Amino acid sequence: MDRVPILKLGDILIISIQIDLDDQSVLALQEDLADAVVTTGARGVIIDITGVEIVDSFIGRMLSTIAATTRMLGAQTVVVGMRPAVAITLVELGLSLGGVQTALNLEKGIARLDHVRGATP
Predict the structure, then answer these.
(1) What's the pLDDT score for residue 25?
(2) DSSP conformation letters of the chain
(3) C-alpha 7: how far from its chain's center?
(4) What is the pLDDT of residues 59-93, one digit of tens each?
């Protein structure tokens, strides 16, 4: 099973998903990310799903669960790079990803986290 790398940029953790996600890799990512938030004291998390072409209901729910978990640990999560087909699929599956902020790209995701954390633009 491939593990998704977690990069640190200041107080933000960046996850760029470049592999096909299966149930096990999503569960591993959830655990690894929770540990990384606690270990680093991160205040923000960006999950870049530009490389994700297909999602199912489990992966959609897990993105929401990951965001809820990081929020409980004191970090805001923004999902960036969602393809139109992925957004359409999530809507068709009835998954609104409540509590998950989104942005078009990494730059806008960082700006959104800066705004939420109260940093000056």
Answers:
(1) 86
(2) -----EEEETTEEEEE--S---HHHHHHHHHHHHHHHHHHT-SEEEEE-TT-----HHHHHHHHHHHHHHHHTT-EEEEE---HHHHHHHHHTT---TT-EEESSHHHHHHHHHHHHT---
(3) 12
(4) 888 888 998 999 999 999 999 999 999 889 889 98
State how far the Cα of 22 lies from the Cα of 42, in Å rounded to an integer.
26
Of 24, 17, 79, 106, the closest CA to residue 53 belongs to: 17
Q: What is the mean pLDDT of the chain?
A: 88
Sign of the CA dihedral 66, 21, 104, 16? Answer: positive
> Would the pLDDT of 43 be above 50?
yes
Higher pLDDT, 20 or 74: 74
